[in-house]
Amino acid sequence: MTDKAMNDLFEEQWNEWIETLSFPTIENQKNIKDDISDILMKIFTMNGKECQKTIDSLNKEVSIIDLTTIPTPDDSDYQIQYSLVTLGLNVAAHSLGFTHGRSVEKIKCYTLDIMKKAVKYLNEIKEKLCQDYDKDFILHICKLVEDEFKIFNGGKKTIKLNKSYQIKVTIQTLTYAIPFFEKLHSQYIKKNDPKNILIDNYKSQVRNIFMGTYTQCKNETAANMLGDTLSNAILSSLKRDLTQTIADSFSLHNKFPSKLSLYAKVMEDLFEKKDFGMYIRFINDTNTAMESWIEMYVLDYCMETEERGKNRLEKQANEILEAKVEALTKCVNKMSKTTKNISFQVWLQNFFKCAQEIVPFSETVFNIFYMKEVEVTNFIEFEKKLIENLEKVKKNLASIFRTGNLEALNSLDEKPHISIAKNILGCTKRCPLCYVICIKASDHPGEHSAPYHYPLGVAGVHDEKTKELVLETCNVLSVGELNFRNYDTHHKWHKYKDYRSVVEYYKSWNIVPVSSLQASLYWKWVFSQFSKEFAKYHVSSCSKIPLQWKIIMEEDVKNSIKIMFKDTS
Asked: What is the pLDDT of residues 296-322, one digit of tens each?
């Protein structure tokens, strides 16, 4: 029989066999536009008819993000608030038709920045998440737009944006995201469809077995094919176990026994680098920043050299691999005692039951080798070759982690630092006034709290008259009679000491009101060191830094870190 004839026969029998299998179904369609409508109705308290009308008005395909695709604000979408000093000039400009045009241009430029941040978020999903589309992605984008509008309206700009324009920007951003979500869902279906997985991963192997059988393939061929299949299963199992082993080992070495100890290390690193940009990233998104630091510490931990010049990652990978191959070899030896008067299919069934406890398989993998064309007559030679192949598999897979570098660590499907971060970081809620993160565990009972709060100027809080960033902490101001206002207070004045009555989230924070408690030496030094940078970043005036802050010694700053996190020792 020619190669073409054998291949045609294989295709015929493969298709017949595929039709005998049943596969679980995956939801093929998700109405993303309906999800958007439901979420918008809940967020903006719109009725169904009003929501659909608003969506239809912007329901054009958006393939690029630039000033031409940004929604143009109507007069009802924003307000211009003039100061007494500039009122005359603005009135004159308005009479000449300048003010509206400039305002619209500013709003569209700011909106473009918001939508670019949304695009960045979508790209992060594409790079980091191998999963199906989820409604939470829509909620995240809505929250992103809402937060950016809060920032815009909370500043000292004369332009204040109304909710009507927030709705337009939200819908336009989601309109751009719809094709992305649809593609994400389509890729998920394709990747996870059992029939496609079977065809893509195993059809070529089955074809090789089929062709080898018709050419009276020897025991070596069957052993090689089974070895290849075992290799895929061993690698998947190795990666999964290695992730957990690294996470457990990292924790066992008490690198960071608590959230506070991690904070102390990060504070030391920030101090040593003296990079304002790194401080801003830490303050603005502490959770992501801490994850990045943990990733760096995990990499350093994995790269530490242990016995015989091997780093920890390579050593742990080899130990896991050695154990799995040794256990599989024992399975083969166990089968050799029961090979008398049995078929190869029975041998495979018994072997897979034993191997399943070492490297989990799917039932589909078992079925591939049950096809009647695969047969072995000399089990002694077959088992000997299979054991040799397992040793080759061990060497080949060990080479992946031999360098023990970042590329090898990133090859793991589940990243160790993500698992470690979940255990260490705990609660990630931020103080509504200074943005310091809660120090308690995740899902902790009671109120949020932090041992030390930032000077409020770190979060951009400034005096409305002088525009200078505020030096005091929340703790100090919550004692006196001073007032504040922001988006959460609807820009109405509110006493710091009554902060709990603003909204429910403020009530969940316990900011200890102590008149003598000031910012730690550490944050005094940070504020003094980068006072100009903070002022420029928050579009405010430089604060009048006290002389005592300016003369703080670096050694005292280091000691301040130990005091702030003294309970970690």
From this structure: 888 888 887 766 667 888 888 889 999
